[in-house]
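Re: Re: ligand-bound prediction request (bumping)

Still looking for help on this. To restate: I need the protein modeled with adenosine-5'-diphosphate bound, output as structure tokens. Inputs repeated here so nobody has to scroll up.
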Amino acid sequence: MCQQKGFTLWFTGLSGAGKSTLSKLVEDELRKRGRNVEVLDGDEVRENLSKGLSFSKEDRDINVKRIGYVAKLLARNGVAVITAAISPYREVRDFIREDNKDFVEVFVNCPVEHCIEKDVKGLYKKAIAGEIKEFTGISDPYEEPLNPEVTVNTHQETPEQSAAKIISKLEELKYL
Ligand SMILES: Nc1ncnc2c1ncn2[C@@H]1O[C@H](COP(=O)(O)OP(=O)(O)O)[C@@H](O)[C@H]1O
Ligand SMILES: [Mg+2]
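Reply:
Sorry for the wait, this slipped through. Here it is.
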């Protein structure tokens, strides 16, 4: 059987924007279509592959590059790889784009006011109170992608609508 083309579907966006939610929905859809899928979720990676790393720029870059490296190994073996990490720095994302080739960037756009309002994990409250330092969007930078393949506006769309937009783009790009 001819091996299917691997790719890296790279979610980037603020904490609580919807990266994990959408990665699960897209993962389910890809599995339904018979694809081998792996999800590299930032929170999980920080518990194993990147355990001990801080949230300094240097450590964030190391963390994101590790995710990019693993994604590359998997994608070149036909796996549909989904990554869900904040990945706040444009330069590192663009480095991974060049290094990985089959790279589809999804900007999970949710204005910080909405993320603060939802506060899915209660982290914004702590960050605003100064209990968490170097928190993206509050006390640490987030650099939006300039040319993402897909932008989903999660404060205006349902998760299903956002996921459908991503699947359509993968079809358009001939990965599905
Ligand atoms: N269009 C959407 N896409 C993704 N999540 C959405 C959307 N609309 C609302 N949400 C909600 O936003 C929250 C996103 O949380 P989560 O996926 O954990 O964010 P992240 O992984 O980016 O930190 C969830 O509670 C989810 O139900
Ligand atoms: Mg998440």
